[in-house]
Hematopoietic prostaglandin D synthase (Cavia porcellus), 199 residues
Amino acid sequence: MPDYKLIYFNMRGRAEIIRYLFAYLDIKYEDHRIEQADWPEIKSTLPFGKIPILEVDGLILHQSLAIARYLTRNTDLAGKTATEQCQADAIVDTLDDFMSCFPWAEKNQEVKNQVFNELLTQEAPRLLQDLETYLGDKEWFIGNSVTWADFYWDICSTTLLVFKPDLLDSHPRLRTLRKKVQAIPAIANWIQRRPQTKL
Ligand SMILES: N[C@@H](CCC(=O)N[C@@H](CS)C(=O)NCC(=O)O)C(=O)O
């Protein structure tokens, strides 16, 4: 087994999908959380100046979703067939498109609040409706077993709920899917022992 070191801030953020995968796949890794104050110096040493990165026996991998795909390769979490894999990727990308619209690093709090509010009240309803329709009465988003798309839904929605606690009030199936992911023993265990952070 390679030596894995995950480097990110002390947040769930874009590293959390990687942490879910390590937990579910029962792979040992170092969850290295850096201080904001140390970031400028570390940034200058990184190939693309962004985190998360995953060091695999010292080799640096970047881009959270590329790393997630690397970890799910040859596992059912990726989807069991080529079409299921495409569907899982597409749900992840759909969620990621939305999460990437948020101005996470905006310094002007008023502007930040306004854009967050617009996205959560005007854009989110269509996305949530589409996700609920896609899920239908299935147990998981894709096929008949859990994939990393279900994990990503749980992770993204946990963060969105911080800003809009009633977000899923009219989406019972999406709430049930969150509960199912959070009830998977390895995930439940990780959620219980992970550092508590807002994001
Ligand atoms: N698409 C990239 C985004 C990477 C990214 O923007 N990371 C942010 C933290 S979430 C970062 O490094 N911010 C600090 C900076 O840009 O200096 C991924 O998913 O890994």
